[in-house]
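Comment on both lines for my students:
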Amino acid sequence: MGVLVTAEDALTAEGARARLRDYAGLRPLPAAERHRADVHLVFADRFTGATLDLLRSLAADGHDAGAGAVLVTGEVPDRYVLPAVQYGLRSVVARTAAGFDAVAEAVRETARGNAVLPSGLQGALIDQVLGLRSSVLEPAGLTFSGLGIREVEVLRLLAEGLDTADIGCRLNYSERTIKQVISGVTGRLGLRNRTQAVAYAFRHGAL
């Protein structure tokens, strides 16, 4: 897998590239191939606004939107946790305590789609996600899936095999309203039919 190494100083970056070559399957990429990175490996003494800007830039450069970032750093302030995750941060390794084996393992886990986060950061991320749900999404009638609360109710009953008339009776809506809800979901998300709408809801954890 291709690993793009970014550091605040050239010595750290070059040392990390040299160490990566010791691990089977990990290949440090030259800067000219940054768009081909499977994982971004970032070294920073402290997490600052500049670190967040760097993660944003790396995410924008990536050819594969699924490429994650491994950050080797000190403490990550709580206010940066959720924005950093939005810009691809998947794993954090403590710079003061980690040997390079831990860094390489975090790179591999990130490439597999997993995350390696200290327990404190996991707690901060969960708190921020729950706060976002209660303060932003729920008041607007939305869920993390991008579906509205009423849309989720309708799709859940569709998944149980009910037809539009039965769903209307169950939810105290007219059948016309249920059909409008389904049409709204399929049109907004570019889906062909209600079966695809139900599948979308399952894939995104709404059902």
About this structure: The mean pLDDT is 87. The longest strand covers residues 2-7. The chain has nine helices and five strands.
